[in-house]
Amino acid sequence: MCDDLGGGQVAAISVCVSILVIAASLIGTSIQQLSSEEYGLMYDVNARDLENEVREGGLHNGPPGFRFVKFPSTYISTDIPEESTSDEDSAENARNGICVSRDGLRVTIAVSYQYQIEKDSLITVVQKYRTRDRWSDLVNAAAVSAVQTGCSLYNISSFQTQRAQIQNSMFDELKKMIEGNSTANAEGLYARAIELQLREVNLPYEYSRAVSDKQSASEDISLAINQRQQALTVAETELQSAVEEAKRINDTAQNEAEILIEQATIEAQGIQVDFEADTDVYLALKSNLNLTTEGLLSFVASDVIAATDEPQVRLSEPALTTYREEL
Asked: Model pTM?
């Protein structure tokens, strides 16, 4: 083109340079790159036209000056509450991090969730919500609502014993809200829920204190029951020992009593034999000597006195010292 110019060498060169610059500029603005983690829709800024083809990572040619409306092709991870960038955001996030249980108590929670845009729905998302930020804000609002709904299905006590179930309920609500619900004829937000984690649960101080007090009281009751059982065991052991000791003493006493009774019986029998022998002797003596009863008594008394070395006899009047006349 520049060789065809006949005159004005400098002007021709200037025109050629300008043409080359413009061409390079047009070529430069006609090529855009998408990363391997992005989807893009080509938008012609001049014609204000949005292409109906979803592009993926790589270099792409398009009309001069076009740009891509970009969305991540991988999953997006978000936290509830989100990190605060201002005092106003901090207050809002604090509210998002608090849910109300079915029995009306406020629970402080921390949740992470992951979602991904549906490639086939990218054109619809751009047409309805224009930008990624608007779409993401709606998804995050739906996630907060899902978490609040899942929280409201359970009593405060369940947050200690059914945490996994609560997490699953929150995830189910998130899927309904962002994926759509055919039963309720809801389109959703054209996203796919990947996962949700209930990372932290902080129960109200009053409830935690009441649970702690109840646990302490339960431990005290268990301790008292154990101590009572131990005391009963000790008492039963002592009672059993006392019963055994009483039985032993009773058996010993019965044995000793039987021995004493046996000894007394034997002694009584001996005394009886002695008395019977004496009786026979005295009867024979009375019969042989032809004595009266008084005479026999006098004879026995004389015999007793004679057998005593130094007899001391004290008689009261009118006692008789002899029964000679009766003999």
From this structure: 0.58
